[in-house]
Amino acid sequence: MNVPVWVNGELLDPAQATVSVFDHGLMVGDGVFETIKTVKGRPFALTRHLDRLKLSAQRMDLPEPDQEAIRDGVARCVAAAPAWDLGRIRITYTSGPGPLGSDRGDQGTTTIVIVGEQKPFPATADVTVVPWPRNERGALSGVKSTSYGDNAKALAYAKARGGGEAVFGNLAGNLCEGTGSNIFIVRDGRLFTPTLASGCLAGVTRALVLEWSGAEETDLPLSALYSAEEAFLTSTTRDVQPIARVDDTVLPVAPGPLTAKAMRVFAERSAADLDP
User: Fold this and answer.
1) Alpha-carbon span 60 to 64, nearest angstrom
2) Is the dihedral of CA 49, 54, 60, 65 positive or negative?
3) CA distances for 214 relative to 18, 21, 44, 220, 222, angstroms
4) pLDDT of residue 77
5) Which of 45, 102, 130, 194 is 20 to 30 A removed from 208 (C-alpha atoms)?
């Protein structure tokens, strides 16, 4: 089934859904995006994701996205799609067509909504620590930008070494994040996750786990991941996924008791409220 794609207010057949080859989202990665899961055809945490899209656009000095129009695009695309057990919505927002350089154009922004099926992640994750640090002081630190070359290279590096996700440290030598996930670890029986000052993305699932599971934010040395009593990844499409192995280090248990509790609480709370 071809699910229609929403482009700048129009619902189009995928074969006719196009953007300019001069669009700066393509040319220089000048844009932001969100991925939102659907559960049996219903979006989860849409308001939080749209708020983060707005914040990312602000931090990149892009015009404010039209959230109501995007909500309408999401609703129309989801209504036209099968009610998959698990699906994903991709919202892309760019500065629009521009010149052959970094200067932005004046033809207006581009907004795209795409809906597709999402295959479940494995029950546990093996992760690979990559040799390239996140720059926690960079202009795009913590922004969900379409400039994803670092992540694509890192994930390919991890998969070539048997990992399902790549993990970054930062310039300070602290634990940061995955390519599309946040990280939680258990030390001395307590649950921690890196602070936003580490350069990690302010993940929607991360925020909900913090609210619902009593985790603490703190700076963590990258080495703490290898010695963790338990660890897990969080993301929109994986929810809470236990980490079984870090490079060649097998963690003591996956899931451990605090991870299992986080998984259970997240499943219960997210089922009870689809827009928390």
Assistant:
1) 10
2) positive
3) 45, 47, 21, 17, 22
4) 97
5) 130
Tell me which residue has tokens 């995955």: 178
Burial of residue 18, with CB atoms counted within 10 A of its CB: 0-12 exposed, 13-18 middle, 19 or more buried: exposed
Residue 244 has a pLDDT of 98
Mean pLDDT of 118-126: 96
Length of the chain as a residue count: 276
Phi, psi of 240 (to 5 degrees): -115, 115
Percent of the chain beyond pLDDT 70?
100
Helices (H) and strands (E) in the chain, counts: 6, 15
Count CB neighbours of 131 within 10 A: 8
C-alpha to C-alpha distance for 182 and 136, rounded to whole angstroms: 15
3-class DSSP state for residue 42? strand
Asked whether the predicted pLDDT for residue 1 surpasses 90, the reply is no
Strand partners, 23: 97
Look at residue 2 in the predicted model and tell me its pLDDT: 84
CA distance 159 to 157: 6
Is 121 in a helix, a strand, or coil?
coil
pLDDT by residue (tens digit) across 186-225? Answer: 999 999 999 999 999 999 999 999 999 999 999 999 999 9
| Three-state DSSP state, 38 | strand
Summarize pLDDT for 137-196 with one digit per residue, the tens: 999 999 999 999 999 999 999 999 999 999 999 999 999 999 999 999 999 999 999 999
* 168-198: b (≥16 Cβ within 10 Å) or e: bbbebebbbbbbbbbbbbbeeeebbbbbeeb
Task: Specify burial of residue 250 (Cβ count, 10 A radius: 0-12, 13-18, 19+).
Answer: exposed
